[in-house]
Design the sequence.
């Protein structure tokens, strides 16, 4: 998972503590950047968790999204292998950046379209005809004909796709931080909504493993910083610390990896579904874990700012998001039921 960092050179590079020729941001600008990162992290977790409760996924949809997640994870591994681990690099950085831009353009447009769809349903004018369309691919003929793809959509979906495509072109051409954040928020929201853990034990094992992974790759090697420095992709949220001084052309960014949002987020969403399963009309575990996430991320930012060094956010988020709800369950006598 990507770590919380300060960036002195732009959206595509993570120059932690890069002081040479660096513009010194004001205290207000730094506070605005950190506060905005915190807010942007909380939004997809909160709304993604709420949407996950009512998200009834078919096996096909679940498999499709799991496959997409697997492809995305493997692409990050291949980046590390080809560019960082193998000397000399098999592929140049320019070609990999071009491949990543096209890859995340497609994924980002689809994710942003899915995110915009509920909002479009509310604002779509009633007097405008909403035509229905169907995209159908079949294999074979006659009685042996088999459906490969059967996707239904309407005019509202096409409008969402068009707007998302404009954002995608903006991102590919300019790599602007606002376009990056729109794609990043869409990825995070869809991840929390659609990636479901089946029980708390699985969630604890997952978070525990990624806790070790995050700490090792940040403190044990320079891979995380190098990947973020070398490749341009909307796999992090960024916010300029010099926005008050330089406006939208600001280039001194603080950043937060999407993994530090999605991984704790799917565990928090699981606890919300556990609250619902208790049928007590309360959201105790959800709000406890949500507040724990705020505490953990705030602690991460504080330590990073104090020591001027990139921090593995899961080092602080995992103990907070797991520990507080477990202690609450132990206090309420519901620990066995939680892990059951």
Sequence:
């Amino acid at each position: 998972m990507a770590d919380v960092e300060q960036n002195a050179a732009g959206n595509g590079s993570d120059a932690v503590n890069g002081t040479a020729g660096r513009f010194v941001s004001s205290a207000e600008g730094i506070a605005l950047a950190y506060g905005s990162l915190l807010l942007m992290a909380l939004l997809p977790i909160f709304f993604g968790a709420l949407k996950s409760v009512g998200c009834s996924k078919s096996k096909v949809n679940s498999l499709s999204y799991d496959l997409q997640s697997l492809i995305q994870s493997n692409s990050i591994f291949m980046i590390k292998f080809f560019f960082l681990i193998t000397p000399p690099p098999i592929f140049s950085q320019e070609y990999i950046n071009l491949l990543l831009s096209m890859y995340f353009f497609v994924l980002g447009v689809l994710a942003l379209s899915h995110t915009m769809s509920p909002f479009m349903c509310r604002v779509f004018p009633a007097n405008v005809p909403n035509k229905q369309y169907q995209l159908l691919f079949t294999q074979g003929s006659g009685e042996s004909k088999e459906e490969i793809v059967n996707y239904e959509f309407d005019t509202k979906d096409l409008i969402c796709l068009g707007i998302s495509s404009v954002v995608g072109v903006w991102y590919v051409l300019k790599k602007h931080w606002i376009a990056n954040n729109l794609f990043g928020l869409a990825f995070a929201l869809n991840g929390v909504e659609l990636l479901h853990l089946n029980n708390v034990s699985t969630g604890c094992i997952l978070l525990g493993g990624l806790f070790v992974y995050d700490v090792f790759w940040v403190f044990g090697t320079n891979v995380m910083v190098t990947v973020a420095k070398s490749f341009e992709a909307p796999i992090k949220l960024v916010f300029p610390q010099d926005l008050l001084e330089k406006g939208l052309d600001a280039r001194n960014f603080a950043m937060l990896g999407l993994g530090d949002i999605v991984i704790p987020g799917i565990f928090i969403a699981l606890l919300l579904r556990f609250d619902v399963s208790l049928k007590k009309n309360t959201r105790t575990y959800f709000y406890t874990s949500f507040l724990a996430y705020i505490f953990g991320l705030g602690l991460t930012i504080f330590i990073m700012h104090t020591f001027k060094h990139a921090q593995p956010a899961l080092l602080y988020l995992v103990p907070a998001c797991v520990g507080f709800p477990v202690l609450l369950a132990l206090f309420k006598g519901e620990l066995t039921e939680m892990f059951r």
Remarks:
- The two ends are 28 Å apart (CA to CA).
- The chain has one domain: 5-339.
- Residues 93-123 form the longest helix (31 residues).
